[in-house]
């Protein structure tokens, strides 16, 4: 008997009732992946209000690396609630904040002295990283990258590339934000080898510092080591190091946005570790709290101390519940060896992807780093024309069979996998089998209509 179990039509009766209530009470601008409502969740499984069980390959968009409702996280939260829920760290402090800061400073890349600030969301972490960089450098310019995503606030929306749905008609945008080109190996110019392309992109970045903005005015470069919403686009080490070297040359801070890539997702605590680069500042969130809102900024001591009291922080920033959940997450990663497990998951997924690539022409590219894996769906491999339509059809077919999937990419044609790293081998294999069945069904349907 499998783990996925669909007992009703989707959505079921209860979900349909809740959908009707949602339409009356919730703005349509708040999106949803599947028209379903959760009843319970544990590990890598979610049950909806109609009794259907789904294997979760989304993990709340990379928030549930340690799994849904991990016993250690639940215990930590219960213990904290019994003590107190919130005092406001800027009113009366608590030890969990200090302990979490100490532990993150220890595991973050580099042997330099570090300090850590906590906030509520990934966007807040990026906002504060920018504030810190500007305060320290006395410069205003911020460079992010094409296809990147950093949030939905005014500043982070400006730093984000994808216009629809994140930016359309929400301007004017924040000033002094510049976007540099980011490598996309699958869509590199024809005739260039990967090494040639990487060198070309480093040169393009240096040209950018001449043609678009003077480096002396730039406070920081903000880079996702692996672009998440952009489509799980993985740069080469040469590019990342080339950008880093340019930053050092011009006194520009290098900020690694690890909000989706952090906490064992790529087989390391931080994805930037794969590139042998030590950032000045790191932003973290998502799986840091196992579902409890919390984010952080980890930075060099002299940079973090540049701001005066009251210039950083917030009412709920680094809440006791978030800090206790994050401490439990760090324990789980270490005790259950999730970095090692993420590497094994990634190997199994890519191995399966390679088999699927050989069978189905709609798969244009496969890529991954650790357990951060994706396939890009195209009309055909010759033209590489993105197919958002086929991507959505595959996801819908997977939902019908009990697998939750999520798309990504500026063209909406990438299927990204963010399953909890604690997923069992049996659950992983079943989920991958459902994915294959869904692709096969969509491809058969396409050929029937085109022949």
From TrEMBL:
Question: One matching Pfam family, short form?
Answer: Aminotran_3
- Pathway membership: Amino-acid degradation; 4-aminobutanoate degradation
**EC number(s)?**
2.6.1.19, 2.6.1.22
> PROSITE patterns in the record, alphabetically?
AA_TRANSFER_CLASS_3
Biological process according to GO: gamma-aminobutyric acid metabolic process
- Which cofactor does the UniProt annotation name? pyridoxal 5'-phosphate
From the UniProt record, list the reaction(s) this protein catalyses.
4-aminobutanoate + 2-oxoglutarate = succinate semialdehyde + L-glutamate; (S)-3-amino-2-methylpropanoate + 2-oxoglutarate = 2-methyl-3-oxopropanoate + L-glutamate
Recorded hits in Gene3D superfamilies, A to Z, give: Aspartate Aminotransferase, domain 1 (3.90.1150.10), Type I PLP-dependent aspartate aminotransferase-like (Major domain) (3.40.640.10)
Could you give a GO molecular-function term held by this entry? 4-aminobutyrate:2-oxoglutarate transaminase activity
Keywords (alphabetical) are: Aminotransferase, Pyridoxal phosphate, Transferase
Q: Which family does it belong to?
A: Belongs to the class-III pyridoxal-phosphate-dependent aminotransferase family.
Instruction: Write down what this protein is called.
Output: (S)-3-amino-2-methylpropionate transaminase
**Which species is listed as the source?**
Bacillus timonensis
Per the UniProt record, the lineage of the source organism begins with: Bacteria, Bacillati, Bacillota, Bacilli, Bacillales
């Amino acid at each position: 008997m499998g783990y996925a179990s669909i007992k009703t039509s989707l959505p079921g009766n209860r979900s349909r009732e809740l959908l009707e209530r949602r339409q009356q009470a919730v703005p349509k601008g708040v999106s949803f992946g599947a028209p379903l409502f959760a009843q319970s969740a544990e590990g890598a499984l979610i049950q909806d209000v109609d009794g259907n069980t789904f294997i979760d390959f989304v993990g709340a968009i990379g928030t549930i690396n340690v799994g849904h409702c991990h016993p250690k996280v639940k215990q930590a939260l219960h213990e904290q609630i019994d003590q107190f829920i919130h005092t406001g760290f800027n009113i009366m402090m608590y030890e969990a904040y200090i302990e979490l800061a100490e532990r993150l400073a220890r595991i973050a890349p580099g042997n330099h002295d570090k300090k850590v600030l906590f906030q509520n969301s990934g966007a807040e972490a990026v906002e504060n990283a920018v504030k810190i960089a500007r305060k320290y450098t006395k410069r205003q310019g911020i460079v992010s990258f094409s296809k990147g995503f950093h949030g939905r606030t005014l500043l982070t929306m400006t730093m984000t590339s994808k216009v629809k749905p994140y930016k359309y008609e929400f301007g004017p945008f924040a000033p002094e934000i510049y976007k540099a080109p980011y490598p996309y190996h699958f869509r590199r110019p024809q005739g260039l080898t990967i090494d040639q392309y990487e060198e070309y992109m480093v040169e393009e970045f240096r040209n950018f510092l001449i043609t678009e903005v003077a480096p002396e005015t730039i406070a920081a470069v903000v880079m996702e080591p692996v672009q998440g919403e952009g489509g799980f686009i993985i740069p080469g080490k040469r590019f990342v190091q080339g950008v880093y070297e340019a930053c050092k040359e011009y006194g520009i801070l290098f900020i690694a946005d690890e909000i989706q890539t952090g906490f064992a997702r790529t087989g390391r605590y931080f994805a930037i570790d794969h590139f042998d680069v030590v950032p000045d500042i790191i932003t973290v969130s998502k799986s840091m709290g196992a579902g409890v809102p919390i984010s952080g900024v980890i930075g060099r001591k002299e940079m973090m101390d540049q701001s005066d009291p009251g210039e950083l922080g917030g009412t709920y920033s680094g809440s006791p519940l978030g800090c206790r959940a994050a401490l439990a997450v760090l324990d789980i990663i270490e005790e259950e060896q999730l970095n090692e497990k993420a590497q094994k998951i990634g190997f199994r997924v890519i191995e399966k992807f390679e088999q699927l690539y050989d069978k189905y022409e709609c798969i244009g590219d496969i890529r991954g780093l650790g357990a951060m894996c994706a396939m890009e769906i195209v009309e055909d491999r010759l033209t590489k024309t993105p197919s958002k339509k086929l991507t959505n059809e595959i996801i819908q077919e997977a939902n019908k069979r009990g697998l939750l999937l999520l798309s990504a990419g500026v063209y909406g044609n990438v299927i990204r996998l963010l399953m909890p790293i604690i997923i069992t081998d049996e659950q992983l294999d079943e989920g991958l089998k459902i994915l294959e069945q869904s692709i096969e069904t969509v491809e058969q349907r396409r050929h029937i209509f085109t022949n």
